[in-house]
Design goal:
The chain has eleven helices and 14 strands. By secondary structure, it is α/β, with parallel strands linked by helices. It has a seven-stranded mixed β-sheet, sandwiched between helices. The longest helix has 23 residues, at about 230-255.
Length: about 350
């Protein structure tokens, strides 16, 4: 097996990043926008001949020069990234790969969680990881008490608004038990610990909710890897279908018969996503209900509107857009750091 130098690439190393982009392009992929560690392998002439990256608990953006295929370089890159992750304290790792390379990663100790046919495979390095996740969920299952059955809502709530509350209230009123999954991935301006608190405080009056942290198996649009998919529509479609494949297993564990989602008339991404769910979930015995958005003064209530008001230092504007518990939080000293973060952000609309 060939041995070459593996180096960490810094964000300001534009020369090496350009070589990485060329190598990725040869493999038909682009550098993902969400990367927090990039490494490369150099040959004797200091040319990039292999690369791989990390983001959170995931491994991404692998490529090996066509001139060096069969030398075991990808195995060395993967081993290096796993060592980096272990140094960070991350032992449970995930990756997304093309169908054609899934077997390779399987031979290196990764196990399939779900796949989108002809597009991608979602894998982890724990043989029974997803099975254990489902088993833990089963401990919180509730048997349906009537024909209405159990339902689910998945939300990020960045932050929790009256629009989110309306969706939860509509769903909870139409089922026996509502399983509310809170996206625990910390890629939002409002950190998960706060989003969780605001969701639970804002829905405390609803008695038939069971709360769940989404964990590592439900990922957001913000961090879904798009580097090996051809266009935005492919990314949206693949994310939706992967979400559905995983949700079907979760629904089975919790005896969920319906999923409620909020309509998003101004977002093409969410519109496509919702339509795919509406088409696919019923094929597996799960109803999909798209709930019209709550409005105030003719305008849709959205988290991005709330973030924009905070960004513009107009906290009074959010009073009519959020539950009292959310407003109380954002007008307290406790929220100062988050408010500063939002006010210093360049883009608070599509975040």
């Amino acid at each position: 097996m060939a041995e070459y130098l593996i180096s960490h690439v810094l964000p300001n190393d534009t020369s090496t990043l350009a070589q990485i982009d060329e190598l990725l392009f040869e493999e038909g992929i682009t550098r993902d926008k969400n990367l927090d560690y990039i490494c490369v392998m150099y040959d004797e002439d200091y040319h990039v001949i292999a690369t791989g990256s990390c983001f959170g608990h995931t491994l991404r953006c692998f490529a090996v020069s066509s001139k060096h295929q069969g030398e075991g370089l990808l195995n060395q890159i993967l081993s290096h990234l796993i060592d980096i992750q272990f140094q960070r304290g991350n032992s449970h790792l995930f990756l997304y790969t093309k169908i054609s390379t899934a077997k390779f990663f399987g031979d290196l100790g990764f196990y399939e969680i779900a796949r989108v046919n002809d597009r991608l495979v979602f894998m982890e390095n724990q043989k029974n990881g997803f099975a254990q996740y489902l088993q833990n969920l089963e401990a919180q299952k509730c048997e349906a008490k009537s024909d209405r059955g159990n339902a689910a809502v998945v939300m990020n709530a960045n932050p929790f608004t009256l629009g989110h509350l309306y969706l939860v209230e509509q769903a909870a009123s139409q089922c026996d038990t509502l399983h509310l999954f809170m996206v625990s991935e910390d890629s939002s301006l409002v950190p998960f610990s706060v989003r969780k608190k605001l969701i639970m405080d804002g829905t405390a009056h609803i008695q038939n909710i069971v709360y769940h942290e989404s964990g590592d198996y439900m990922i957001s649009n913000a961090t879904f890897p798009s580097y090996f998919l051809k266009d935005e529509t492919s990314v949206i479609t693949s994310h939706a279908k992967l979400d559905i494949a995983i949700f079907i297993e979760i629904a089975s564990a919790l005896h969920i018969r319906a999923r409620y989602v909020g309509e998003e008339p101004t977002s093409q991404v969410t519109g496509i996503y919702n339509q795919i769910m509406a088409n696919e979930l019923p094929k597996h015995g799960i109803e999909c209900h798209i709930i019209p958005r709550k409005m105030i003064n003719g305008q849709v209530i959205s988290a991005s509107t709330v973030r924009k008001a905070i960004h513009d230092k107009d906290l009074e504007k959010i009073r009519d857009l959020v539950p009292a518990s959310t407003y109380t939080y954002f007008t307290s000293n406790e929220a100062k750091d988050i408010i500063d973060k939002i006010q210093n952000a360049h883009n608070v609309i599509h975040y």
